[in-house]
């Protein structure tokens, strides 16, 4: 039975449970709602959840575990026949077996072969590869008898497992509904039981989010450790050369990242902050109603569009000004892709980020502060400079740090705007590259995930993660400290 | 009404020079007509109290006296208000300069998140009142002494103004307002957030301040108005109903509405 039908069945069971439990509760209270502990719907809901939640959990766990168990069991056939297989060969053969099994079950499903035909098939008598190719399943090599046996075992166990799964899940659903139904009585605290289950469901959602994060971090850590076993840590963290294959020094990439981010912040912070001050302190209501959403549209532009803008507009413009034979008559820039190009465009991207956060923070400064200052005969700009900005400063610093962590993690703009050359240089008109773009290039193409060239991506990712996490934590700490001031 | 005559006769009723003179003042907040045709003469070296039920316009009128209503977009003011014979709503008058001359203390103490010293030095610095640090120190000390706060904070002028107690914060705000050497001091319910002891301290301070300033205080407490003021104005629904010696208002009001309010029947 496929998961779809299982879901339908337990859904029906649960709905029946809802209706039944609700009736039972009403009849136990002899039809008077006032005699019930909870409203009738809570009794129904209790039975519904009891029929659904344990069954769904069982379904999820079973579906996750079954393939692993089957794989273990099938692997033993192959290892018995070929005891000298390494892990690489084994995984190749397993892929073949899996494809074979899937192809054969599709063939049965489509009616091209019967179940008996498949289980009687022998590799030395039938051209399995040819027959499957006719059915649209391509296999990478001729099928050996061991592989066919394994595939047959695979199909056998999974058919058996699927049936068992259907029985178990439906049984769990029936059992849960039955227990809830039997418990249903006018004094049963169904409302509290539903409350408890609701809390558990919310907790589960929170746990999934947290566990995913933990999983990602752990995978980063393990792969980073693996990389550092293959490549000396000292050369990675302090190496000044990067060529993507034999020399994997972090410093030029980190320098490129920081240099571009600094230029972006030099652009974004003054523009964003001044825009925020204008919007929150000077702009009239109609202007604000128009300008604030307009500024936030800028935040909605996908970064790849900014990247195009960098590549096609800003880069050539800068080249015209600072390049050979350009408007300034200097020869600082040799190509359109440069730190400056990416930095300027990234700065524009960050403007709405800085201005929107700063605007909120400036608005959070109590009106009493402004009144106090105006009441002493201060002008608007004196009030902003001497009262509002000092009061809002920690929050603004937090906003800037959050913007910085975005700049560091930004990829698309630098891919298109900054070039690909890893370089340690002070000239902002030279092409450089960043950590994020190198992660992209290390993993695209034919990457062997056991080589240091590919694993270095995880180490780079880990480095970025640590930097941005540090910045975010620091920013949140500062913002939180600021909030306490007026509460 | 004979029984009320005794306190009335004891009050100091000598006539003083008029400091602020308002004629035909109307205030609109958008469509709302908040102040209706108010005429009032406020004397120098006197504490004038504005009383009345909530929303009667007394705070609004107070804020007209230093043009704080200018910071509200939808507020519109008509009529004229003269301070020392000069119309403060004249185009030539800079509201920013005016506010240095007419200081204001707010309902909720609002010290800046700066040191006590910087809170008081804020106004003098902006208006360039001190030539050097020594002069500024002197101004700050004088203002804090006038605010009756000097003895409590002289050893911790660098501490944050927001760290003081509620009553101390309000006296800091008074000291801050006094530091710019205003001629008029407006107080918008200065004691409403304070406990009785702090209130007593601030009231005592107000009584001392009248030696140098014309003080206008908005208050919800009729006892407070009776304690600190020499003149009282009663506002009701945007109208100035009655304005007279405090003793007269509380013992022998002419208008029915005033009598109802002070005896607790309305408001």
CATH topology of chain B: Rossmann fold
The helix fraction of chain B, in percent, is 25-40%
Q: What would the average pLDDT of chain B be, to the nearest integer?
A: 88
SSE succession of chain A: HHHHHHHHHHHHHHHHH
Helix fraction of chain A? over 70%
Lateral arrangement of strands in the main beta sheet of chain B: 6-7-8-3-9-10
| Shape type of chain B | globular
CATH superfamily of the largest domain in chain A: MetI-like
Secondary-structure-based class of chain B equals: alpha/beta
Number of helices of chain B: 11
Helix/strand order of chain B, N-terminal first: HEEEHEEHEHHHHEHEHEEHH
Characterize the main sheet of chain A. none
How many strand segments of chain A?
A: 0
Remind me, CATH topology of the largest domain in chain A? MetI-like fold
Poorly predicted sequence stretches spanning 5 or more consecutive residues of chain B: 1-10
User: What is the CATH class designation of chain B?
Assistant: Alpha Beta
Unreliable segments of 5+ consecutive residues of chain A: none
| Beta-strand residue percentage of chain A | under 5%
Function (chain A): Part of the binding-protein-dependent transport system for phosphate; probably responsible for the translocation of the substrate across the membrane.
Domain ABC transmembrane type-1 (chain A): 254-475
Keywords (chain A): Cell inner membrane, Cell membrane, Membrane, Phosphate transport, Transmembrane, Transmembrane helix, Transport
GO cellular component, one term (chain A): plasma membrane
């Amino acid at each position: 039975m496929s998961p779809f039908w299982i879901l339908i069945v337990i859904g029906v069971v649960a709905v029946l449970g809802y209706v039944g439990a609700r009736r039972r509760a009403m009849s136990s209270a002899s039809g008077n709602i006032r005699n019930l502990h909870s409203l009738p719907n809570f009794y129904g809901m209790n039975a519904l959840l009891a029929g659904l939640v344990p069954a769904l959990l069982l379904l999820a766990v079973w579906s996750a575990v079954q393939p692993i168990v089957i794989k273990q069991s099938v692997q033993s056939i192959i290892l018995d026949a070929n005891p000298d297989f390494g892990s690489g060969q084994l995984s190749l053969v397993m892929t073949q077996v899996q494809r074979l099994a899937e192809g054969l079950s599709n063939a049965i499903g489509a009616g091209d072969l019967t179940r008996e035909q498949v289980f009687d098939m022998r590799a030395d008598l039938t051209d399995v590869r040819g027959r499957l190719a006719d059915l649209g399943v391509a296999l990478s090599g001729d099928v050996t008898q061991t592989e066919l046996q394994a595939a047959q075992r695979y199909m056998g166990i999974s058919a058996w497992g699927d049936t068992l799964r259907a029985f178990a899940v439906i049984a769990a659903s029936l059992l849960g509904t039955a227990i809830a139904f039997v418990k249903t009585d006018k004094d049963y605290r169904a409302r509290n039981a539903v409350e408890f289950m609701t809390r558990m469901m919310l907790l589960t959602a929170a746990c999934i989010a947290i566990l995913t994060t933990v999983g990602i971090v752990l995978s980063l850590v393990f792969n980073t450790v693996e990389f550092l076993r293959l490549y000396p840590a000292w050369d990675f963290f302090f190496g000044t050369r990067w060529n993507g294959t034999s020399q994997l020094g972090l410093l030029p990439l980190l320098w490129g990242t920081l240099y571009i981010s600094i230029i972006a912040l030099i652009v974004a912070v003054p523009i964003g902050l001044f825009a925020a001050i204008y919007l929150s302190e000077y702009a009239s209501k109609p202007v604000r109603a128009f300008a604030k959403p307009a500024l936030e549209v800028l935040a909605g532009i996908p970064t790849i569009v900014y990247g195009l803008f960098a590549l096609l507009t800003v880069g050539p413009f800068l080249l015209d000004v600072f390049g050979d034979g350009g408007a300034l008559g200097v020869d600082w820039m040799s190509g359109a892709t440069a730190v400056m190009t990416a930095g300027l465009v990234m700065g524009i991207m960050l403007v709405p980020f800085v201005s929107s956060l700063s605007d909120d923070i400036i608005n959070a400064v109590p009106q009493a502060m402004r009144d106090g200052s105006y009441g002493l005969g201060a002008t608007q700009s004196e009030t902003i400079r001497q009262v509002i900005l000092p009061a809002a400063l920690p929050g603004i610093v937090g906003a800037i740090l959050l913007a910085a962590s975005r700049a560091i993690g930004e990829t698309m703009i630098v891919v298109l705007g900054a070039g690909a050359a890893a370089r340690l240089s002070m000239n902002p008109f030279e092409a450089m590259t960043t950590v994020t773009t190198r992660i992209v290039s290390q993993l695209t193409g034919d990457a062997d995930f056991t080589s240091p060239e590919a694993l270095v991506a995880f180490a780079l990712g880990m480095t970025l993660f640590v930097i941005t996490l540090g910045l975010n934590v620091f920013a949140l700490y500062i913002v939180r400290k600021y909030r306490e001031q007026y509460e | 009404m004979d029984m009320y005559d005794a306190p009335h006769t004891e009050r100091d009723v000598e006539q003083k020079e008029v400091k602020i003179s308002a004629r035909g003042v109307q205030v609109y907040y958008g469509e709302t007509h908040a102040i209706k045709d108010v005429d009032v003469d406020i004397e120098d070296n006197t504490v004038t109290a504005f009383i009345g039920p909530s929303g009667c316009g007394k705070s609004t009128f107070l804020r007209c006296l230093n043009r704080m209503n200018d910071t509200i977009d939808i507020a519109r003011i008509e009529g004229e208000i003269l301070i020392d014979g000069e119309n403060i709503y004249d185009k030539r008058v800079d509201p920013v300069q005016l506010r240095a001359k007419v200081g204001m203390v707010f309902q909720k103490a609002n010290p800046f998140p700066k040191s006590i010293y910087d809170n008081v030095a804020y106004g003098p610095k902006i208006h360039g009142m001190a030539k050097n640090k020594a002069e500024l120190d002197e101004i700050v000390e004088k203002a804090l002494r006038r605010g009756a706060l000097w003895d409590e904070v002289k050893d911790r002028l660098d501490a944050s103004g927001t760290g003081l107690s509620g009553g101390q914060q309000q006296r800091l705000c008074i000291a801050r307002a006094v530091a710019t050497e205003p001629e008029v001091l407006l107080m918008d319910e200065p004691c409403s957030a304070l406990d009785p002891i702090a209130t007593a301290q601030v009231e005592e301070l107000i009584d001392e301040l009248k030696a140098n300033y014309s003080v206008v205080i908005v208050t919800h407490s009729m006892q407070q108005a009776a304690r600190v003021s020499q003149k009282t104005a009663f506002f009701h629904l945007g109208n100035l109903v009655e304005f007279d010696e405090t003793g007269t208002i509380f013992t022998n009001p002419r208008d029915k509405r005033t009598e109802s309010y002070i005896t607790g029947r309305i408001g």
